[in-house]
Amino acid sequence: MKPIKVIVAGPRGKMGSAALRMIQQSDNLQLVGCIDRKFDGQIVKDLDGLPDFEAKIYEDPEVCLNEVEADVLIDLTTPEFGYKHTKLALENGVRPVVGTTGFTKEQLNELTEMAENKRIGAVIAPNFAIGAVLMMQFSKWAAKHFPDVEIIERHHDQKLDAPSGTAVKTAELIQEEREAKHQGHPDEKETMKGARGADSEGLKIHSVRLPGLVAHQEVMFGGSGETLTIKHDSINRDSFMTGVKLSVERVMEMDILAYGLENLLD
Ligand SMILES: NC(=O)C1=CN([C@@H]2O[C@H](COP(=O)(O)OP(=O)(O)OC[C@H]3O[C@@H](n4cnc5c(N)ncnc54)[C@H](OP(=O)(O)O)[C@@H]3O)[C@@H](O)[C@H]2O)C=CC1
Ligand SMILES: O=C(O)C1=N[C@H](C(=O)O)C[C@H](O)C1
């Protein structure tokens, strides 16, 4: 079987470098190019700390997608550039697998429509960790019984977006089961702005950013005389790589955009 030809955008990043190591360990994946704004024209293996790949690095994503024959683009960059890369990939018939978080609802809708019109597979997964997908699904289930819920997500302090993509997706899944409800006392007042967190249809989301953390989320439900907490911890970035690899493999057979790894699991 021919290997799946992959471009990685953001190869020097925490996730991008983990993705390169995952590709190196996979017999069925081949790195054919990288998109990186700082090392145009260089070869991956010449960069400190990256695996021994001969693939060329491109600053300009359009040039990369024109010059390199690829099946899949893995994007692990920033919301602004991730959105541009995903759009360009779809325009060029390359299937995007996107871990980058922080896209707006409008951007997600536009990309979904583009993939559908072009009949090209795409995956946008706010969290590639299998445990995190289960945590979100369990939370959706629990919300049928407990409409009072708050999300506490904790991440490293280099993270750009808040709330996390996982928290946003969790709230969306919970809202498929939960009626919109204002939580807490009806006369509740914040004496310090932000004390009650972000509000998503009355559901509160609290974002913690500290050095030492990786990626963690607790979903707390409250009922009469009881609480239920569903918790997931990624203790390193290998936790995301099973989902990235699975997405790259599955996207080859898809012709629509899947938002969330749960759509690819049995
Ligand atoms: N879906 C999931 O399971 C996960 C998703 N994420 C998400 O993935 C994204 C990356 O996270 P992480 O690896 O921790 O972040 P990092 O900051 O470590 O890496 C981001 C990389 O993107 C590069 N970059 C920035 N702008 C551009 C550009 N214009 N063109 C090409 N590359 C660019 C940065 O380069 P430079 O050094 O020049 O700034 C950097 O190397 C985030 O959105 C994060 O939320 C993270 C973990 C899991
Ligand atoms: O930036 C991160 O680190 C992570 N981002 C994703 C998110 O925003 O949910 C996934 C995971 O939480 C790690």
Automatic annotation (TrEMBL):
NCBIfam families: dapB (TIGR00036). SUPFAM superfamilies: Glyceraldehyde-3-phosphate dehydrogenase-like, C-terminal domain, NAD(P)-binding Rossmann-fold domains. One of its GO terms (biological process) is lysine biosynthetic process via diaminopimelate. The gene is dapB. Residues 131-265 form the Dihydrodipicolinate reductase C-terminal domain. One of its GO terms (cellular component) is cytosol. It holds the Pfam family DapB_N. Belongs to the DapB family. This is 4-hydroxy-tetrahydrodipicolinate reductase. It is found in: Cytoplasm. The active site is at 155 (proton donor/acceptor), 159 (proton donor). Residues 178-201 are annotated as: Disordered. HAMAP family: DapB (MF_00102). Keywords: Amino-acid biosynthesis, Cytoplasm, Diaminopimelate biosynthesis, Lysine biosynthesis, NAD, NADP, Oxidoreductase. It comes from Thalassobacillus cyri. Its EC number is 1.17.1.8. CDD domains: DHDPR_N. (S)-2,3,4,5-tetrahydrodipicolinate binds at residues 156, 165-166. Residues 4-128 form the Dihydrodipicolinate reductase N-terminal domain. Homotetramer. The lineage of its organism: Bacteria, Bacillati, Bacillota, Bacilli, Bacillales. Pathway: Amino-acid biosynthesis; L-lysine biosynthesis via DAP pathway; (S)-tetrahydrodipicolinate from L-aspartate: step 4/4. NAD(+) binds at residues 10-15, 59, 99-101, 125-128.
